[in-house]
Amino acid sequence: MDETLLQEPIVPKAKKQKRQRITWSMIKDQRQLIFMSVPLLAYIILFAYVPVWGWTMAFQNYKPARSFGQQEWVGFKQFKFLFTDDSFMRVLRNTLGMSIINLILGFVTAIVLALLLNEIKKLFWKRTVQTISYLPHFLSWIIVTGIVATSLASDGIVNDILMRLHFIKEPILWLSEGKYFWGVVGASHVWKEVGWNTIIYLAAMAAIDPALYEAADIDGASRYRKMFHVTLPGIKPTIVILLIMSIGHILEAGFEVQYLLGNGLVVDWAETIDIFVLKYGIAQGNYSLATAGGIFKTVVSVTMLLFANWIAKRLGEERLL
Amino acid sequence: MANQSVTPERVSAAALQSRVGRGKLEPVIFNTLNTLFMIFLVVVTLYPFLNTIVVSLNAGNDTIRGGIYLWPRQFTLQNYKAIFVSGTIYDAFLVSVARTVLSTILNLFLTTMLAYTLSRREYVFRKSITFIFVLTMYFNAGLIPGYFLMKDLHLINTFWVYVIPSMISAFNLIVIRTYIGTIPESLVESARIDGAGDFKIFWTIIFPLCKPVLATIALFVAVGAWNSWFDAFLYTSSRQELSTLQYELMKLLSSSMNANSNPAVANGAGMTQDSAASMVTPLSIRAAVTVVASVPILLVYPFMQKYFVVGLNVGSVKE
């Protein structure tokens, strides 16, 4: 039988029926496609979905020595403990606090930088600034936190400059006081990602119809009016989509920065949910409690994502899922 | 029509007036301030990195005196010699290179192959497989269940734990699939008439045509593999010979940060006993390792810029 002939009538029919019926002959025709994709499907199910089975640990008093049948089931005890535990509440506060700071700082700085880059008329200079601004994105958090720690040390460049300008008399111990920690984390994120985050806005700006700017020129609009009434509305859909997408990541305050920059002196302000999970799970062997913390994070994230998706639909934006 | 032709003239006259009124000063001020801001940005971005390079090229015992900014006071290559003579950093460097190369090759091949099958409209499992992969972008089982999986699969304390768990990313899959969608269908059709099967079409036609997007993905995957340290920390920390460069750097960093907050520790653990190596300090070693760990990527990314800007925007269409 000719393969192409066989498929021709099936495709339009499938559209009408909505649900395509899978027949043996189709599977035979598409065996190469199946060989190329089904092993990878098995792979992703093994590595991304099978571990969900481990969530049962959160409802047990898990002991690694016992087999699954011997585990003691405790219902929601671990979750009850989490929500009455002061340290988990503190961890939740830190996660939300840092995540919101990162979100707002990240958006504002990237949009402002994109607007300013967009005003540079000399192409070579613009390209140079852009290339340099992408650099920190490619450095690992290990390197970035090393640079941050060096710069903020008592004899580091930041204290050096502030003292020379007579803003302060004595060096500030940026990394030893809890009140600075969230700000330091926010600033580190901006330093690393601000250039990279402009890429998407600059692309959106490049897509704005030049006729709009010409019309604004004819109307005598100033540079700032053009920014506010042409450029910003032009990139508004991009901003909205990115904002909505980041709602799903509200509990993703990051793990690496806090883990690498945190120390005993600022631990009350530095620990996030991920560090909590790592501490209880891997370091102390309390797998059940750590898994419960992880489940909480995943469930909140997925709920927020569905919520964001619903908002996107209501606003008439393209849905995310 | 008549109405339209009158209006712009009137308006542009008004515009002209307002422009004259504002004078030519405003653009000059704005451009100067903007340029100054950009110079500030460039300095803030580059200075810490340049300073690290200079520290790595300066004698360690001299650096401690402070005042090293953008030029070495006592130039030396001793720090680099020290890290490449000591076996651990050099071995970690080789492990990092190996995992980066292997991850990149496997990711490119497997992700593109899967993306090709998911771009075929007639493929019966197209929708279900796409959905299962896209869903993984938004949830994961978490650290502890993941750890137990690696344990059950006997991947802990093996080299493969760096490569196997991250062979396909859903994000890259969507980017490549979107790109394949722009390749004319007629190319595939004519190959099919010539009797080529799907694998042959993928390998001889689609894969080579995906070069621009694969350049982007290769950069993303390579950067991710090169920069990751958490897997070494979590899964292989008890086997020194599997340590990666970033993980070694992390160990150096945390020991020197403890030394900062507690000078007594620095004297005990940080400083080497060997007096011949007194030119070398933990700080200068760290600077040298930082340079070694970042230079390979920094040499590559400026040349990939035109690709990743496009790749990022393709991906954002449907993330």
Describe this protein's structure.
The complex is a heterodimer of chains A (321) and B (319). Chain A is an all-alpha fold and 321 residues long. Chain A has two domains: 57 residues, no CATH class; 238 residues, Orthogonal Bundle (MetI-like fold). Chain A has 15 helices and no strands. In chain A, helix 4 packs across helix 15 and helix 6 crosses helix 9. Chain A is globular. The N terminus of chain A is likely disordered. Chain B is built from 15 helices and no strands. Chain B folds into two domains: 55 residues; 232 residues, MetI-like fold (Orthogonal Bundle), CATH 1.10.3720. Chain B is an all-alpha fold and 319 residues long. Chain B is globular, with a radius of gyration of 27 Å. The chains are: A mainly alpha (321), B mainly alpha (319). At the A-B interface, helix 1, helix 3, helix 5, helix 6 and helix 7 of A face helix 1, helix 2, helix 5, helix 6 and helix 7 of B.
Write a brief caption for the model:
Chain A has 321 residues and is an all-alpha fold. Chain A is built from 15 helices and no strands.
Write the layout of secondary structure elements.
The complex is a heterodimer of chains A (321) and B (319).
Chain A: H1 3-17, H2 24-29, H3 31-49, H4 77-84, H5 86-118, H6 123-134, H7 141-152, H8 157-164, H9 178-206, H10 210-218, H11 223-247, H12 256-261, H13 267-270, H14 273-283, H15 287-314
Helix pairs in contact in A: 4-15, 5-9, 6-9, 9-11, 11-15, 14-15
Chain B: H1 2-22, H2 25-56, H3 60-63, H4 78-85, H5 87-119, H6 126-135, H7 143-152, H8 170-180, H9 185-193, H10 198-209, H11 211-227, H12 230-235, H13 245-261, H14 263-270, H15 282-317
Helix pairs in contact in B: 2-15, 4-15, 5-8, 5-10, 5-11, 5-13, 8-15, 9-10, 11-15, 13-14, 13-15
The chain-level structural class of chain B is: mainly alpha
CATH homologous superfamily of the largest domain in chain B - what is it?
MetI-like
- Into which percent range does the helicity of residues of chain A fall? over 70%
Distance between the terminal alpha carbons of chain B, to the nearest Å? Answer: 46 Å
Q: In CATH terms, what is the architecture of the largest domain in chain B?
A: Orthogonal Bundle
What is the H-and-E element order of chain B?
Answer: HHHHHHHHHHHHHHH
Radius of gyration of chain B: 27 Å
Low-confidence spans of chain B: 1-11, 261-277
The secondary-structure element order of chain A is HHHHHHHHHHHHHHH
The CATH superfamily of the largest domain in chain A is identified as: MetI-like
Instruction: Tell me the name of the CATH class of the largest domain in chain B.
Output: Mainly Alpha
* 3D shape of chain A: globular
Query: Might you state the CATH topology name of the largest domain in chain A?
Result: MetI-like fold
The count of strands of chain A amounts to: 0
Helix content of chain B: over 70%
| Total strand segments of chain B | 0
Structural class computed from helices and strand pairing of chain A: mainly alpha
Shape of chain B: globular
* Largest interface, counted by CB within 8 Å of the partner chain's CB: A-B, 100 and 97 residues
